[in-house]
C-alpha cells in the first residue's frame, strides 16, 4: 500500500486485530488483507521479538517465526496495553505504550505502510473498553509511529458501531438497529436508536443482556435464541449485525430464522468495528456526513465544568470542560492568579438538566503570600466518564515569590461560598525574563510587572522605564500594540503615571480606586525635591533588603547635597547616615556601619542614634571598646542597662538543626539582597 493521505480504522481486539481503509472512489471502508492476494484480514493481537536484537514482527506468521528462531512471543498484548505496568523483556524495561507503538509500527509495515507520518492522513483505533492507562498508552504509541494528535484518534466499539451504521443505506437504520457480539463463549447485545425530536438528532447505543453460550452446537443455538428473545422481543428492527472474531453460522439455524422475523436485514462478519472506526476517522478530517446527528455514548462527559473569575477586569464564567465530548478527549490546562483565597471553586452544570452546583478544592500547604502573588497551573483530565482528576500546581510568582511544588488532586467535592477572586492569566509567561536591577529580580509575566509597578512606585526610574522593557514586552510577551503605544509615550517623556497606566489597563490589573490611590502617591512623590526623592528611594530599597543598591543611592544623595550646597538640614543628613549604617550592618560590614552611625549621631544628637553607634562599636571593636565608649559619652545608667540587655539578646543565636541547608539559604538570600 503505497498511497498517501490514507484514512485508517484499526480494531484492537483481545485476540485478533484488523485494519480498514477508506476508499474515496466508492465511499466505503475496505478491509485490508494481511497478505497480498489473500482474503484473511485478521491477525493475532500479539508480537514476536528476536532474542538479543531489537527486531520485532507481527502478523499471521509471527508466532511460527518466533518459535522457529527461538524468539519471544507476546500473546497477552491486549492485557499489557490496558494497564500501566512496565513490561520486562530480556532484562529491558518497556512501557506498555512502547510495546503498543512497536506493535502498530510492525502491523502497518505488514500492510505496506512504511512511513505512517507521510502516508496516513488520519487513523482511528477502536476497542471494546477504554481505561485511562490505555488512553495514555495509545497516545505514546501514536508518537512512536509519528502521528500527531490532530491525525490520531481513539474511541470505543459503541461509537464505531454508530459510525458504521449511519454510513449505510438509510433504510438499514430507519428504526432500531441491533448488534450481537460474540466473544469466546459469551454473547452480548447492544441496541442503537435515533431520536429525531431534537436538532441535531440524538443517537444512543444501549447495552443489553448477555448470555453464556454452550460449546455444543444445538445447545449453543438454543442459548443464542433465548438471548435474542430476551434482548429483542417483538420489537421492530431495521437491521441486525452479528460480529465475532471467530463467527461461524453453521450452528445457527433456529437463530437465523428468528432473527429474520419482521423483515429484519441480517449482516454478519468481523470487520464492523474496524469499518466504523474508519468512517469516524474520515468524519474527523474530511466530510462531515454525520453533522446532523449527536452520538450520546457511554463515554460522553455529561457535565460542564467551569470557574468564575476576573477576565479583563470583569467577573466572567470561564469554561474548562465542555459537556458532549468523550472523557478521554476532555482535558484542559490553564494558569490563574489567586487573590485572597486558598481554595478553588468550580461550577458544574448538567448537560441534560442545566442544574448548576458549586464545589471547592482546598489548596492545602500554600505559602502565605500577598494577594495576587500566587500563580496556579490548573490541569483537568478524566479517568472515566464520571471521574475528573483536577491537579493544581503552585508556580509562585516568578523570582519575587518562588513556587512550591505542591499538587492537590480532588476526588471529593465540598460546598463553598466565597467572595475572593481568581484572575485568569491572559498573557503567557515569558521564556526569557526581564531583569530589574533595582531589586535584583527577574520577572516573567505582565502580572509580575504590574505587581512591581504598583508596590514599588518610588523605584520607578530609568532602570525600569526604558526601551529594553518595551522590547521585552514585545518579543517575550507578544504585546506588540502595547509596545507601540508605550514607545510613543517614552519618546514624549511623559510622567511615570501616564507611562504605566496602559500597562495596568492591558489586563485591568487595578481597580479604579487602586489606580487613583497610586496616582496620588506618585503625585506626592514627584512634588518632592529630587534629592528628597533619592533619599526616599534609598529608604525603600532598605525596606526591601536591597542593601547594596540602597548604599549607592545614599552615597549619591550625600554627594549631591555637598556639590549643590543644598541646605536640607542636619536631620536630613543624619537620617541618611543612620539608614546607610543599617544597610552596612545588614551586610555584616560593621566598620562601615560604625562610621555611618557615628556621623548620624553627630548630626542628630538623639538617644536612638547614640544607641546604634554604641551597638556598632560593640560589634566591630568588642566589649572593652564598648565600655570605654559608654564612659566617654557619659551614657546614663538606664540607657546602659537597655544597651546591655539588647546586646545580650542579640548574642543569643540558636543555630538551626540543618546547618548546611541554612547556610545555603543564607547565601542565596545574601546574593539576592546584594545583587551579586
Describe, in plain words, how this protein is organized in 3D.
By secondary structure, this protein is of the alpha+beta class. It folds into four domains: 6-156, Nucleotidyltransferase, domain 5; 161-272 and 288-295, 2-Layer Sandwich (Nucleotidyltransferase, domain 5), CATH 3.30.420.10; 303-424, Substrate Binding Domain Of DNAk, Chain A, domain 1; 570-676, Serine Threonine Protein Phosphatase 5, Tetratricopeptide repeat, CATH 1.25.40. It contains 22 helices and 29 strands. Strands 1, 2, 3, 4, 10 and 11 form a six-stranded mixed β-sheet that branches. A six-stranded mixed β-sheet has the order 16-15-12-13-14-17. Strands 20, 23, 24, 25, 26 and 27 form a six-stranded antiparallel β-sheet that branches. A hairpin with a 4-residue loop joins strand 2 (16-23) and strand 3. Helix 3 (96-110) packs across helix 5 and helix 11 (467-475) runs antiparallel to helix 12 (480-491). The radius of gyration is 37 Å and the shape is elongated.
Please indicate the count of domains: 4
**Which regions have little confidence, pLDDT < 50, spanning 5+ residues?**
407-420
CATH class of the largest domain: Alpha Beta
C-alpha end-to-end distance: 64 Å
Amino acid at each position: 500500500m503505497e498511497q498517501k493521505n490514507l484514512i485508517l480504522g484499526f480494531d484492537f481486539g483481545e485476540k485478533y486485530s484488523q485494519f480498514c481503509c477508506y476508499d474515496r472512489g466508492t465511499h466505503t471502508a475496505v478491509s485490508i488483507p494481511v497478505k497480498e492476494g489473500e482474503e484473511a484480514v485478521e491477525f493475532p493481537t500479539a508480537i514476536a521479538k528476536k532474542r538479543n536484537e531489537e527486531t520485532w514482527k507481527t502478523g499471521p506468521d509471527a508466532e511460527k517465526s518466533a518459535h522457529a528462531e527461538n524468539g519471544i512471543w507476546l500473546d497477552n498484548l491486549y492485557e499489557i496495553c490496558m494497564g500501566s505496568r512496565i513490561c520486562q523483556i530480556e532484562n529491558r524495561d518497556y512501557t506498555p505504550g512502547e510495546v503498543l507503538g512497536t506493535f502498530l509500527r510492525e502491523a502497518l509495515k505488514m500492510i505496506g505502510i512504511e512511513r505512517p507520518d507521510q502516508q496516513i492522513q488520519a487513523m482511528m483505533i477502536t476497542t471494546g473498553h477504554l481505561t485511562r492507562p490505555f488512553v495514555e498508552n495509545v497516545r505514546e504509541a501514536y508518537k512512536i509511529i509519528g502521528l500527531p494528535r490532530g491525525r490520531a484518534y481513539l474511541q470505543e466499539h459503541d461509537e464505531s458501531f454508530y459510525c458504521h451504521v449511519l454510513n449505510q443505506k438509510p433504510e438499514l437504520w430507519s428504526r432500531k438497529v441491533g448488534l450481537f457480539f460474540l466473544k469466546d463463549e459469551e454473547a452480548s447485545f447492544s441496541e442503537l436508536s435515533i431520536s429525531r425530536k431534537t436538532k441535531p438528532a440524538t443517537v444512543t447505543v444501549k447495552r443489553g443482556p448477555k448470555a453464556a453460550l454452550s460449546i455444543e452446537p444445538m445447545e449453543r443455538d438454543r442459548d443464542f435464541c433465548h438471548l435474542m428473545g430476551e434482548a429483542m422481543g417483538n420489537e421492530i428492527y431495521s437491521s441486525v449485525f452479528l460480529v465475532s472474531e471467530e463467527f461461524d453460522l453453521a450452528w445457527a439455524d433456529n437463530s437465523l430464522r428468528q432473527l429474520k422475523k419482521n423483515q429484519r436485514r441480517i449482516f454478519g462478519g468481523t470487520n464492523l468495528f474496524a469499518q466504523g472506526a474508519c468512517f469516524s476517522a474520515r468524519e474527523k478530517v474530511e466530510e462531515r456526513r454525520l453533522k446532523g446527528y449527536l452520538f450520546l455514548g457511554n463515554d460522553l462527559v455529561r457535565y460542564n465544568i467551569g470557574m468564575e473569575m476576573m477576565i479583563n477586569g470583569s467577573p466572567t464564567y470561564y469554561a474548562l470542560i465542555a459537556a458532549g465530548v468523550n472523557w478521554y478527549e476532555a482535558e484542559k490546562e490553564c494558569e490563574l492568579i489567586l487573590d485572597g483565597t486558598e481554595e478553588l471553586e468550580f461550577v458544574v452544570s448538567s448537560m441534560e438538566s442545566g442544574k448548576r452546583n458549586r464545589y471547592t478544592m482546598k489548596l492545602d500547604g500554600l505559602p502565605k503570600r500577598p494577594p495576587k502573588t500566587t500563580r496556579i497551573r490548573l490541569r483537568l483530565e478524566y479517568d472515566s466518564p464520571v471521574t475528573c482528576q483536577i491537579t493544581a500546581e503552585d508556580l509562585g510568582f516568578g523570582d519575587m515569590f518562588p513556587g512550591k511544588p505542591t499538587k492537590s488532586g480532588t476526588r471529593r467535592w465540598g460546598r463553598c461560598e466565597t467572595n475572593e477572586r481568581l484572575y485568569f492569566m491572559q498573557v503567557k509567561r515569558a521564556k526569557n525574563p526581564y531583569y530589574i536591577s533595582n531589586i535584583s529580580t527577574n520577572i516573567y509575566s505582565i502580572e509580575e510587572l504590574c505587581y512591581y509597578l504598583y508596590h514599588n512606585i518610588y523605584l520607578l526610574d530609568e532602570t525600569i522605564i526604558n526601551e529594553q522593557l518595551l522590547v521585552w514586552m514585545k518579543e517575550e510577551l507578544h504585546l506588540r500594540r502595547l509596545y507601540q503605544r508605550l514607545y510613543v509615550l517614552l519618546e514624549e517623556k511623559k510622567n511615570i503615571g501616564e507611562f504605566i497606566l496602559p500597562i495596568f489597563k492591558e489586563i485591568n490589573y487595578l481597580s479604579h480606586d487602586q489606580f487613583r490611590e497610586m496616582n496620588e502617591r506618585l503625585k506626592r512623590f514627584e512634588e518632592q525635591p529630587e534629592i528628597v526623592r533619592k533619599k526616599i528611594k534609598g529608604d525603600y530599597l532598605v525596606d526591601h533588603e536591597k542593601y547594596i543598591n540602597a548604599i549607592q543611592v545614599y552615597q549619591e544623595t550625600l554627594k549631591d547635597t555637598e556639590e549643590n550646597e543644598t541646605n536640607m538640614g542636619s536631620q536630613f543628613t543624619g537620617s541618611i547616615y543612620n539608614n546607610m549604617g543599617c544597610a552596612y550592618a545588614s551586610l555584616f560590614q560593621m566598620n562601615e556601619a560604625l562610621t555611618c552611625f557615628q556621623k548620624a549621631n553627630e548630626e542628630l544628637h538623639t538617644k536612638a542614634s547614640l544607641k546604634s553607634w554604641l551597638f556598632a562599636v560593640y560589634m566591630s571593636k568588642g566589649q572593652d571598646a564598648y565600655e570605654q565608649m559608654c564612659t566617654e559619652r557619659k551614657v546614663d545608667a538606664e540607657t546602659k542597662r537597655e544597651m546591655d540587655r539588647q546586646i545580650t539578646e542579640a548574642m543569643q543565636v540558636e543555630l538551626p538543626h540543618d546547618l548546611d541547608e541554612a547556610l545555603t539559604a543564607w547565601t542565596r538570600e545574601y546574593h539576592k539582597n546584594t545583587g551579586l
